[in-house]
Structure prediction request, 317 residues.
Amino acid sequence: MEAKEHVKCLIIGSGPAGYTAAIYAARADMKPVLYQGMQPGGQLTETTDVDNFPGYAEGINGTAMMVDLENQAKRFDTDVRTGWVTKVDFSGDKKLVEIEEGKHVLSADSVIISTGASAKWLGLESETRLRLNGGGVSACAVCDGFFYRGQEVAVVGAGDSACEEASYLAKLCTKVHMLVRRDEMRASKAMQHRVKGMDNIEIHYNTETVDILGAEQVEGARVINNVTTEESTLDVTGFFLAIGHKPNTDIFSGQVDLDAEGYIIAAKPGSSYTNAEGVFWSGDACDKTYRQAITAAGTGCMAALDAERWLAEKGLH
Ligand code: NDP
Prediction:
C-alpha cells in the first residue's frame, strides 16, 4: 500500500465514539480526518428515540442525534468523509489505511478505531436470502416493523434487545412470537415483565429456528422445541433477529489484539491504548459490557485525549 496523503489523526467510524473522538481531536488542533464507514451515524440510526443520552431532556430521534454529533464535529473542522476502510497496516510508524479496495490510501500518525458492532444472524440460507432481498427478515424492528402492521411476526432472542424489539412490534402487529432457545430469558427482569405483560406476545421457550419459509417473502417459520424435538410452523410474515452483535473488527485482525469474539483487547486498563503503537480504541469495537451511546462517546473522548498525549510524547504534535 502506498499512501497518497498523510494525516495526524485518522478516525475510523461515525457512531457516538467516532464523532466524540473527532470533536476532541479537532479542538486539540489534531486536524482529524474521519471516515464514516458503511453505516454513517452507526447503530443509533436504526433506533427511534434515545431517552438516555444526557443533555436531551425530552429525548431525541437517534438519526437526528447523530446528525447533531456530525455537525458538532464539523463545527471544529473535522474532515468528515464518506467511504469505508478495507485494509490497514499498523506495523510502521506511519499507519497505512486503505479506503474501498484501493480507491485511496492514507498514512496516519495516530488512528482511533470507532467501528462499533453489527447485528448477528442465525446463518440460515433462507435468512440470508430473505434479508438481502428485503423479503421480511430484519435485525431492526424500529426500521422495518412498520411494514408488518396488522401482521404476525417472530422475534428471535431473549436478551434486552429482543424484549425491546418484541414490545415495539407488539404495538404494531397482531401477534409477536418470541423464540427463546433456553428455558429462561437473559433479559433484565424489568424487560421480561414488559414482554410478559403484553397480551399479544407469546413466548416460546426451548425453541429454535429450523428454517424461514417463503421464496421471495417470509411466509412462515419452521421451529423446533429442543426438549421434545417437536417441530411446528408459525404463520408469520416478518422475522426479526435480536441475538446480539459482532464487533466490526475483521479488518484489524493481525494488526491489533482481538479476543475470541473479535472485540479489541484494551492494552492498558483505564485507557484507550491498543497493543499497536499510536492506535487507540473507542466504543463497541472494544466494549462488550456497557455498549451504550454515552459510554461509546466517553471512550471516544478518552481515545482522542490519549492520542493527543501520545502524539505530543513522540514530538508529532
Ligand atoms: P445479548 O447478548 O444480551 O442477548 C442475546 C440473546 O440472543 C440471548 O438471549 C441469546 O440466548 C440469544 N441468542 C444468541 N444466539 C442465538 C441463536 N443462534 N439462536 C437463538 N438465540 C440466540 O444481546 P442484546 O443485544 O440483547 O443486548 C446486548 C447488551 O445491550 C446487553 O448488555 C443488554 O443489557 C444491553 N441492552 C440494553 C437495553 C436497555 O437497557 N434498554 C436495550 C438493549 C440492549 P442465550 O441467552 O441462550 O445465550
